[in-house]
């Protein structure tokens, strides 16, 4: 009996296994349908039996329900332990990793496509909107005048939420950090598991599938080489278009080498420096001072960062320093956005009430990573 792990459960596995499973055998060798239901885990009872025979926790599968692919929509049984997703038609070539003889997990490219096609249920959207309006009435002066309070279209926000969530996953997989289970520390210095090139090659094999449009949009917003969740969050807050709740600033490069050969004698880190966020044409750098690095290395790290900033300043770069606390504060993020806009020669318009609400919701979403 085969089991095919997908969606968020597959993401948990990729975050857990060494190097995201690179080097494991691939499946299928040629495009084909999933095995028929009697050879594939398709019911809660079949999953219970399968889980009893396999140590799934060692692959990072500790959250329920587990996401599994099945060959037909009619086989999506409901239950607390497993959540089944129908994959109609052929599974693209080399889109899954073989963990064990009968256990497979989706590769990063396949995971993104699956998550792009995920639906939202209507009731939670409406319920969240009702709570949002009630909270707004309690704090809005307009409530005392029986006037409508500002609000954000709930269905438009749900589309944004799903899109941004997809961008977050893409940037993690294209970056060098891995999120882990709640209560466990994020891992840094990890291997990049996804590139734009590998995604393009996969989509050529997959053909036209549901969710492709959302995936294309997400990839157009994502940047590679992020080194931490907070770097990702800061980039998205500053640079996402305002319709998604960002400030719409020009995009930087993340963690790309910058030559410092002219001042190499002042910098014992070699002939280059790797700024966190770099706008090369404007000679602007943002350096993110993380709690993890400064908490563990203290004065040594502070001294290294000061030297980096001095070298960059000597080369004519403006260096903005940003901490975790800055990013966690919407008011501080707005201040940073105005500083960056000023340096880039970009004008930021005064936001409408609806945009302020959207920015607050985007900030809350990104801080929940």
Task: Provide structural commentary.
- This protein is of the alpha/beta class and 369 residues long.
- It folds into 3 domains: 3-106, no CATH class; 108-223, no CATH class; 225-369, no CATH class.
- Helices cover 43% and strands 13% of the residues.
- The strands form 5 sheets. The chain has a 4-stranded mixed sheet. It has a 4-stranded mixed sheet with strand order 9-12-13-14, sandwiched between helices. It has a two-stranded parallel ribbon with strand order 3-4.
- Helix 3 (108-116) runs antiparallel to helix 5 (154-173) and helix 5 crosses helix 7.
- The mean pLDDT is 88.
Short characterization:
The chain contains 13 helices and 14 strands. The protein is an alpha/beta fold. The chain has three domains: 3-106, no CATH class; 108-223, no CATH class; 225-369, no CATH class.
- Radius of gyration, in Å, reads 23 Å
- Overall, the morphology is globular
In DSSP terms (H or I, runs of 4 or more residues), the helix count works out at: 13
Alpha-beta classification: alpha/beta
Number of strands: 14
Largest sheet: 4 strands, mixed
The end-to-end distance, rounded to whole angstroms, is 35 Å
Overall pLDDT confidence: 88
Spatial arrangement of strands, main beta sheet? 1-6-5-2
Q: Low-confidence parts, pLDDT < 50 over ≥5 residues?
A: none
The domain count comes to 3
**SSE order:** EHEHEEEEHHHEEHHHEEEEEHHEHHH
Task: Indicate the topology.
Elements: E1 3-5, H1 7-16, E2 26-27, H2 44-53, E3 66-70, E4 82-86, E5 96-100, E6 103-106, H3 108-116, H4 122-139, H5 154-173, E7 177-178, E8 187-188, H6 196-206, H7 212-221, H8 229-239, E9 253-254, E10 258-259, E11 272-273, E12 277-279, E13 284-289, H9 291-297, H10 299-314, E14 318-323, H11 324-328, H12 330-344, H13 353-367
Parallel strand pairs: 1-6, 3-4, 13-14
Antiparallel strand pairs: 2-5, 5-6, 7-8, 9-12, 10-11, 12-13
């Amino acid at each position: 009996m085969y089991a095919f792990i997908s969606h968020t459960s597959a993401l948990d596995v990729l975050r857990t296994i060494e190097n995201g499973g690179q080097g494991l055998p691939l499946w299928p060798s040629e495009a084909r349908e999933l095995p028929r239901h009697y050879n594939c885990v398709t019911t809660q009872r079949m999953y219970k039996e399968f889980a009893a025979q396999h140590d799934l926790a060692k692959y990072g599968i500790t959250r329920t329900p587990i996401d599994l692919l099945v060959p037909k929509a009619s086989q999506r049984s409901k239950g607390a332990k497993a959540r089944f997703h129908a994959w109609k038609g052929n599974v693209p070539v080399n889109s899954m990793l073989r963990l064990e003889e009968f256990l497979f997990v989706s590769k990063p490219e396949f995971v993104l496509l699956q998550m792009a096609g995920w639906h939202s249920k209507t009731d939670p959207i409406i319920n969240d909107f009702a709570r949002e309006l009630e909270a707004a009435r309690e704090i809005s002066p307009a409530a005392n005048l029986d006037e409508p309070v500002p609000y954000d279209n709930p269905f438009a926000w749900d589309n944004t939420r799903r899109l941004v969530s997809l961008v977050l996953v893409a940037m993690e997989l294209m970056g060098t950090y891995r999120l882990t289970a709640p209560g466990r520390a994020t891992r840094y210095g990890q291997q990049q598991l996804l590139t734009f090139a590998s995604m393009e090659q996969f989509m050529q094999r997959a053909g036209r599938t549901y969710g492709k449009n959302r995936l294309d949009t997400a990839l157009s917003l994502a940047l590679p080489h992020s080194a931490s969740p907070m770097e990702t969050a800061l980039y998205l807050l500053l640079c996402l278009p305002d319709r998604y709740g960002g400030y719409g600033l020009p995009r930087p490069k993340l963690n790309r080498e910058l030559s410092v050969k002219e001042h190499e004698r002042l910098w014992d880190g070699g002939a280059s420096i790797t700024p966190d966020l770099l706008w090369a044409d404007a000679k602007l750098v943002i350096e993110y001072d993380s709690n993890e690095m400064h908490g563990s290395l203290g004065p040594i790290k502070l001294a290294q960062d000061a030297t980096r900033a001095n070298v960059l300043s000597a080369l004519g770069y403006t260096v903005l320093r940003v901490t975790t606390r800055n990013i966690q504060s919407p008011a501080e993020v707005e201040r940073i956005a105005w500083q960056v806009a000023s340096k880039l020669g970009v004008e930021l318009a005064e936001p409408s009430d609806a945009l302020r609400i959207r920015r607050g919701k985007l900030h809350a979403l990104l801080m929940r990573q």
